[in-house]
Amino acid sequence: MEKIKIGVFGGSGFYSLLEKAEEIEINTPYGKPSAKITIGEYAGKKIAFLPRHGEKHQYPPHKIPYRANIRAFKELGVERIIGPSAAGSLQPGIKPGDFVVCDQFIDRTWGREDTFFDGPKVAHISGAHPYCPELRKLAIDSCRGLEITTHDKGAVVVINGPRFSTTAESRWFSSHGWEVINMTQYPEAILAREAEICYVNIALITDFDAGLEGTRDIKPVTVEEVVRVFNENNEKVKKVIFKMIEKISELGGCQCNQALKNAFF
C-alpha cells in the first residue's frame, strides 16, 4: 500500500472526516485500534482518520487502545498526526468555543499502557516538549486564518476519567495556572513521540471546569453542554484540519522523527 503520511484522530463528537473514502482493518501487536481506519484524499494527499473513542464512543478514556491506534498509523506510514480533542477550560479567559493549541501536558492518569518499550528494550525519551513545534505553528496559523479565537499555548491536565473533576480538584489545577483539562492527551501524545511521529493537539474548549463554578454565572460541566458546544464547532475543527493538510507537506525542520536517537543506554 502507498504510504499515508497524514493521520487524524477524532475526539468526542467527531466520528467522521472524509468523503468517498474506504475503510481498512488493521491488527497490531497491541491489538486492534479503536475502529476501522478510514482512508481518503484531500488536496492531493492521502489521509488516515480514526475516531479514538470508536465509532459509537464505546471506549471510555481509560480504555482507549492508545498503543494500537498509534501503531496502526505507524504501519500505514503516517509521519504527522493532528489530534483535536474536546477539553474544558481552567481559566476564565479561555472560553467555550475557543481553541487552544497545547504545548505541555500534566499527567494525572493511572494504569494506562503508556509506552512501547516494556522491556527488555527500554527507551527513555525526552518529554520536555511533547508537541511538534512545526505542527503547532501550522495549527495556530490555520486557526487564526479562519478567524477562530485561538490561544497559542496551554498546559493540559490529563485526568483519568470518565468522571469529571471535583470542584476541589479543578480549583487545584486552576491555581497552578494550567489552562486546559482533558482525558485523552496522555498517553496519546507521548506514544506518538515514541513512534517518532509529529503530533499536535488542538483543544476545542467545550465548557468551564468545576473549579470556575460561581465565577460570572459559570456552572459545572455536563455532558449535554460538552456535546452541544462540540457540535456547534465541529465544522470549524474540520476546516482547520483541511487548511493544515493543504500546507503540511511544506514542513520538515523539526526533530520529532529522531526522538529515539539518544533514548537508549
TrEMBL record:
UniProt site (Important for substrate specificity): 165, 223
Q: In which pathway does it act?
A: Amino-acid biosynthesis; L-methionine biosynthesis via salvage pathway; S-methyl-5-thio-alpha-D-ribose 1-phosphate from S-methyl-5'-thioadenosine (phosphorylase route): step 1/1
Query: Top-level EC class, please?
Result: transferase
**Residues annotated to bind phosphate:** 12, 52-53, 85-86, 184
Identify a single GO molecular function assigned to this protein.
S-methyl-5-thioadenosine phosphorylase activity
The EC number(s) given in the record are 2.4.2.28
Keywords associated with the record = Glycosyltransferase, Purine salvage, Transferase
Q: Which parts of the sequence belong to the Nucleoside phosphorylase domain?
A: 5-245
Q: Pfam families this protein is in?
A: PNP_UDP_1 (PF01048)
Q: Give Gene Ontology CC terms.
A: cytosol
Q: Which residues bind substrate?
A: 183, 207-209
**Entry's Gene Ontology BP terms:** L-methionine salvage from methylthioadenosine; purine ribonucleoside salvage
Catalytic activity of the protein: S-methyl-5'-thioadenosine + phosphate = 5-(methylsulfanyl)-alpha-D-ribose 1-phosphate + adenine
* Listed InterPro entries: MTAP (IPR010044), Nucleoside_phosphorylase_d (IPR000845), Nucleoside_phosphorylase_sf (IPR035994), Purine_phosphorylase-2_CS (IPR018099)
PROSITE patterns linked to this entry: PNP_MTAP_2
State its role: Catalyzes the reversible phosphorylation of S-methyl-5'-thioadenosine (MTA) to adenine and 5-methylthioribose-1-phosphate. Involved in the breakdown of MTA, a major by-product of polyamine biosynthesis. Responsible for the first step in the methionine salvage pathway after MTA has been generated from S-adenosylmethionine. Has broad substrate specificity with 6-aminopurine nucleosides as preferred substrates.
What the record says about family reads:
Belongs to the PNP/MTAP phosphorylase family. MTAP subfamily.
Quaternary context: Homohexamer. Dimer of a homotrimer.
**The name this protein goes by in its record:** S-methyl-5'-thioadenosine phosphorylase
User: What organism does this protein naturally occur in?
Assistant: Candidatus Jorgensenbacteria bacterium RIFCSPLOWO2_12_FULL_42_11
